[in-house]
Amino acid sequence: MGHRLHPALVHFPVACWSLAVVADFAGFWFGEPAWRWSSGLLTVGCGTAIVAMLAGILELAYVPEGPAMRIAYWHMGAMLCACALFCTRLLLRLEDLRALEPNTVSLLLDAGGFLCLTVGGWLGGKLVYHHGVWRSDSH
Question: Would 77 be classed as within a structural domain?
Answer without folding.
Answer: yes
